[in-house]
Amino acid sequence: MKQYTQKCIFIFVYKCRSIRCFSRIRTKALALTDRYCIIYIVALAKLQDEVIPMDYIAEYKRWLENPALTENERAELQSVQENKEEIESRFFAPLSFGTAGLRGVLGVGLNRMNRFTVGQAAQGLANLIVSNGKAAMDRGVAIAYDSRHFSPEFAKQSACILAASGIKTLLFDELRPTPELSFAIRHYGCIAGINITASHNPKEYNGYKVYWEDGAQLPPAEADVVAKEMAATDIFSGVRTGDYGAFVESGMIRILGRETDEAYLNEVLKVAVNPDCVKQVADEFKLVYTPFHGAGYRLVPEILRRLGYKHIICEPEQMKIDGDFPTVKNPNPEYKEGFNLAIELARRNDVDLIIGTDPDADRTGIVLKDKTGDYVTLSGNQVGVLLIDYIITARKLTNTMPAHPAVLKSIVTTEMARAAAEKNGVACFDTFTGFKFLAEKIKQFEKTGSHKYLFAFEESYGYLAGDYARDKDAVTASMLIAEMAAYYRTQGKTLYDAMEEMYEKYGYYCEKTVSITMPGVSGLTRMKELMAELREKPLGRIGTHQVEYTRDYMSGIRTRMADGSAEQMELKGQNFMYYELEGGTTFIIRPSGTEPKVKVYIMAKGDSKAAAAEKVEALSAAAKE
Asked: Is 532 exposed, middle or buried (0-12, 13-18, 19+ CB in 10 A)?
């Protein structure tokens, strides 16, 4: 019986061409024949939460021999035929589709971003929308893209696939910021949206982000339907498409241009709290901006001009749209190295503030001149705290503070944000990591009327204010940062001075994120084994710090380590472990949802900046052991 069951499992997986987790397998089994449903029932106990290895050599050969490949695509596969590890990497599993869509390395293969995997995802989304009826199809899908390789091609391909299924599409005429897509979905009343982007990942990556009608990322139920439809769609022969020119001529594909930019910028400008302070310093205040070769290149300088700034110095090399990101090692505003050209430009022009946005203009980083004249970066946590304090202050000055105000942050974001909010009479709420969860909380507030959100952010340099979009927005964040800098300039201070004051007002906090890369097939296994071990053998001590409470956010249980007593938490269903250490320090272990790495978040508070930093460094060393 055991041998027969294992054979049945192999047949089932091969037919599905997938290696999903139990929830995915169950969905696909129900869509197949009764025979396969029986196989699913027999295998149920063995498959739950397990990864099923597929015959990646057979899948490689299937691709290699398929006539749908171009000669260049076939040549790429032939070039790795002697490299078994590379073949396994490309074909061990499909790219997993979830609430964040797809993301992966560009290349030919089942586990790569290419026209076949993108086409399968587009067909899966099309099938979901068709299942919602004609009205949903007529509402249409907005499509945007960034500066990465193949982004325009994937966007146009997706538009044609949707149109071939009778779904109207609204395709931007060139690259646009991610938040403008979220805005466009809401502005035009679309049923969904697609953004071709891998955000701040290295140049080798691209992605396929899908949004739903509220402008936020696709909810889990809809994401499961898309994944099911993808699994039922042959990647080579199951995708319907048509002629792009004919679709445009017939009106099935509508091109969006500057009129959408105007509507978007008008909404962004409404988020400004106290723009009059800009007028007071505009004649002499200079700032440097860099888009890191990406989608912020036009709209960020434009919103700063509309805010009232007269001296916006754009880094010329990084204003060039280029998917190779040739002037940076990594197009991520988290890293100071990416700002090197902008820092030199700032030095030559005696500038105190540099603003940078990532390739799809949803994340924002800043560099400031400190008291010694050196240029230093602020973390996403620091910028978020500065903005919370400023927005609250400006709202009070302008008498625009709503009733029951609130700020939102993710669990892995600094507790200094809570201190800044609550000390000023503003509520602070946590959500799971990912802006889709922050968007859900905003939607909840709108539905219940319990609170009015002022500002939402994550430590990973994502910020949002206003009601026009439901994803982090580097255009709005850049505007608010510039407005905040002008406010402090009217007081004779820089943003660096303001940050020092934040510590005096709210306490000395320090944070650090340690990323442990686990690439390849073995990396996925190691990440799974690590999280299982942490649950089976709870940590009692991390470094020299005693663990007082453990929070398992998969089960939603908070356990007191001294006596084992447990309580249910409000949030659950996410795979990470949260450790409350003695002295108020926090240690969080979380597998990344978009990259092959485990992230460790360390957050500490001390009697001084040095004391907090010392705690963080000690725990950082423990994390790497």
From this structure: exposed
| pLDDT grade for 517, boundaries at 50, 70 and 90 | confident
> Element (H or E) spanning 546, and its range?
strand 545-552
Q: Interior CA angle at 221 toward 216 and 227, to 5°? A: 100
- The secondary structure element, H or E, covering residue 142 is strand 141-145
Q: How far apart are CA 287 and CA 311, in angstroms?
A: 7
Q: Is the pLDDT of residue 214 over 50?
A: yes
Give me the DSSP letters along 92-141: SSPPPPBTTBEEEEBSSSTTSBSHHHHHHHHHHHHHHHHHT-HHHHHH-E
pLDDT at 45: 30
The beta-strand segments (E) located in 299-420 are 311-314, 353-357, 364-369, 375-377, 405-410
Categorize the per-residue pLDDT at 594 as very low, low, confident or very high, splitting at 50, 70 and 90: low
For residues 379 and 612, give the distance between their C-alpha atoms in angstroms, rounded to a whole number: 15
Tell me the per-residue pLDDT of 291-325, one tens digit each, with 9 for 90 and over.
999 999 999 999 999 999 999 999 999 999 999 99
- The pTM (predicted TM-score) of the whole model is 0.89
Comparing CA positions, the residue from 231, 93, 109, 217 lying closest to residue 596 is 93
What is the DSSP secondary structure assignment for residue 1, as one 8-state letter?
-
* Rounded CA separation 380/502 (Å): 14
The 3-state DSSP class for residue 470 equals coil
- Which residue stretches of 349-473 are H helix? 380-397, 416-422, 435-448
Distance CA 93, CA 59 (A): 10
Residue 261's CB is within 10 A of a number of other CB atoms, namely 18
Give which of 544, 549, 559, 551 is closest to 625, Cα–Cα.
Answer: 544
* 553's tokens: 């956010």
Render 485-517 in DSSP notation, one character per residue. HHHHHHTT--HHHHHHHHHHHH-EEEEEEEEEE
Active site residues: 199
Can you give the pLDDT at residue 53? 53
Neighbours of 210 (CB within 10 A): 26
The continuous run of DSSP H or E covering 566 comes out as strand 566-568
40: which residues sit within 8 A by CB, 6+ positions away?
Answer: 12, 25, 26, 29, 30
Q: How much is the average pLDDT of 389-393?
A: 98
Pairwise pLDDT comparison (529 vs 139), residue with the higher score: 139
**Quick one: angle between helices 380-397 and 495-506, nearest 10?**
90
Residue 340, C-beta contacts closer than 8 angstroms, at least 6 positions apart: none
Residue 233 has pLDDT above 70, yes or no: yes
DSSP symbol at 355: E
**91 neighbors 111 (Cβ within 8 angstroms):** yes
Q: What is the C-alpha R_g of the chain? A: 25
Nearest-angstrom CA–CA distance, 381 and 399: 27
- What is the reported pLDDT for 103? 94
